[in-house]
TrEMBL record:
It comes from the Eukaryota. This is Protein arginine N-methyltransferase domain-containing protein. GO terms for molecular function: histone methyltransferase activity; protein-arginine N-methyltransferase activity. One of its GO terms (cellular component) is nucleus. It comes from Gossypium raimondii. PANTHER family: PROTEIN ARGININE N-METHYLTRANSFERASE, PROTEIN ARGININE N-METHYLTRANSFERASE 3. It holds the Pfam family PRMT_C. One of its GO terms (biological process) is methylation. Coiled coil: none annotated.
């Protein structure tokens, strides 16, 4: 069993979303962005999803470390 979310595929109940970062990241060749994402069902409303994104970059032109929270309804 499988499914596709391509533009020419039959619709499914799966959705796509974009999570914007608060920072503009400037990364140079050879540098690495380190991060993780946690997705969990909201405790108060099981139809909502809580998302936590952690990321850090310690580069020549950009140094940042942040945790951001999102709620998908």
């Amino acid at each position: 069993m499988g499914f596709s979310i391509g533009p020419r595929s039959r619709a499914t109940h799966w959705k796509q979303t974009v999570l914007y970062l608060e920072d503009v990241l400037t990364i140079c060749e050879g540098e690495t962005i380190i991060g993780s994402m946690t997705v969990a069902q909201n405790k108060k409303n099981p139809r909502d999803v809580d998302i936590m994104v952690k990321y850090s970059l310690s580069g020549r032109r950009c140094v940042v470390s942040r945790v951001q929270f999102y709620k998908m309804r």
